């Protein structure tokens, strides 16, 4: 596995595979009353897979539409690699906890509002893709 880092070795991304694609974002949702655990990986070429991390079953996989991939890349245009996970609200039982790792190659450090917008978009996208898949 080849990994590229910044000069301070604080940020990293996986180097593209021989097919010219590497992970772009890894998003995860856990919790809720039913105790779900979803992990979605979207690659730079638009391919995606959403796993149920409780049983490693596939909930959805395929390729994003051109529209969805453009929407995602424009939303995160220029963002440097970063991780996002909100601070849980005390007493927030049965709520979802989302987190993601953005492996983009941009130079801009996103502010909290941009990170929350990206997470919201990823959550909506995951819901749509799982609903369309019929595998759930």
What does this structure look like?
This protein is an alpha+beta fold and 136 residues long. 24% of the residues lie in helices and 38% in strands. It has two helices and eight strands. It has helices at 66-75, 112-133, and strands at residues 3-5, 12-14, 23-31, 36-43, 47-52, 57-63, 80-84, 96-105. A six-stranded antiparallel sheet has the order 6-5-4-3-8-7, covered by helices on one side. Strands 1-2 form a two-stranded antiparallel ribbon. The protein is globular, with a radius of gyration of 15 Å. The chain starts with a strand and ends with a helix. The model has no long low-confidence stretch (mean pLDDT 84).
Give the N-terminus to C-terminus distance in angstroms.
32 Å
User: β content, as a range?
Assistant: 35-45%
Structure annotation, total helices: 2
The computed structural class is alpha+beta
Low-confidence stretches: none
Form type: globular
Radius of gyration over alpha carbons?
15 Å
Helix content: 10-25%
